[in-house]
Specification:
The chain is built from five helices and 18 strands. The protein has about 350 residues and is mainly β.
């Protein structure tokens, strides 16, 4: 076991951003569900389908005034056992030539292959040895915009991208839109959240204006925070590996040669890539981790659980609908739309 761990840590360095210390860990699937307590609180049957990971206190409402997320959860899908946060994104579908849809499954990332779908989560404290302030109870945010359909709009969100995996270790040639050719090892969606906070508000009406990307450059380059958002927060980063390999036969792709994958919110371009986050770490565990020289999934100050234990933490769906068969429409009847909001098909 010891020799394997040394090998894994050495090998994984090629996957990790060039930061002095960080967390990189697996969170298995909690549920795939049409709920969105951030954008559509209290609604059972949100407009589009999501895949959710993290603590099992996730529900349709999640009112920050009444819900203690880590206190209410009894398990988490994440390998750091003090993390009961919830993380979610839209779901990818394959659209066949006959117009039917099939959900694309997720698979475990490199060194987390045992995980049942889910995501890889990063918390990166710094690239230049500066102090960051961990999120506070009640903190939540969104990055990206599901209504975007053009490259110009997508460039507002500097680091929401896709990687066409030539093999599981591929980490180059990111694009803002969906890959145009079959990807031998699947498609990885990459979501890097803003890293500057206004220091006051735990949320905002649009769930985004209380945070900001650096005023210029990127977090990795040490870009300064704007005066309106002076507090540096960890870079939260999702990697989701979508197993598109069962659909790599181009004879099943659209006859015009366009790529066949669409998001559950009705986007065939990929420019509307977005993700949601609700903080739910127990006590000050995240701040301790951000102040400590952690190395990926190794952080002595945090309690670790095996991936197989995270796999056991699930929730039953509350919206009764078929999401796994061949569907004649996206769940919730969501149309696929263009930049003007008009149905594409």
């Amino acid at each position: 076991m010891g020799s394997f761990l040394i090998f894994a840590l050495a090998s994984i360095s090629s996957l990790l951003p060039n930061a002095l210390a960080l967390l990189r860990f697996s969170c298995s699937q909690l549920v795939v569900e049409r709920l969105d307590p951030l954008v559509n609180p209290g609604v059972v049957g949100s407009p589009h389908l999501h895949q959710i990971i993290g603590g099992n206190s996730f529900n349709a409402s999640m009112d920050p005034m009444t819900l203690d997320i880590p206190g209410s959860a009894t398990c988490t899908t994440c390998t750091f056992a003090e993390d009961f946060s919830n993380y979610w994104t839209a779901v990818m579908f394959f659209r066949a030539r006959n117009g039917t849809y099939k959900r694309v499954q997720q698979k475990g990332n490199v060194y987390f292959e045992e995980s049942t779908g889910g995501m890889t989560i990063y918390y990166i404290p710094s690239y230049n040895n500066t102090v960051v302030t961990a999120f506070n109870p009640g903190f939540r945010m969104i990055t990206g915009d599901p209504t975007i359909r053009t490259k110009e709009e997508a460039q507002r969100y500097r680091q929401l991208t896709y990687t066409c995996l030539q093999d599981p270790m591929t980490r180059t040639n990111e694009t803002l839109d969906m890959p145009k050719a079959p990807c031998p090892a699947g498609i990885m969606a990459n979501l890097r959240f803003p890293t500057c906070w206004d220091g006051v508000n735990l949320d905002s009406p649009n769930h985004a204006s209380h945070v900001s990307y650096p005023e210029s450059g990127t977090f990795e380059e040490g870009g300064a925070c704007p005066a309106s958002h002076p507090v540096k927060i960890p870079q939260l980063f999702y990697e989701i590996v979508w197993d598109t390999t069962p659909f790599n036969d181009r004879s099943e792709w659209p006859e015009d040669g366009s790529q066949p994958f669409v998001w559950s919110y009705g986007d065939a371009t990929g420019f509307g890539n977005h993700g949601d986050y609700m903080f739910g770490w127990k006590g000050n565990a995240l701040q301790i981790a951000m102040d400590t020289n952690c190395n990926g999934f190794q952080c002595p100050e945090l309690r670790y659980q095996e991936i197989r234990d995270g796999n056991k933490c699930t929730k039953p769906r509350v919206v009764d609908e078929d999401i796994d068969g061949w569907l004649t429409e996206l769940p919730g009847g969501m149309p696929v739309t263009d930049a003007s909001g008009n149905p594409v098909f």
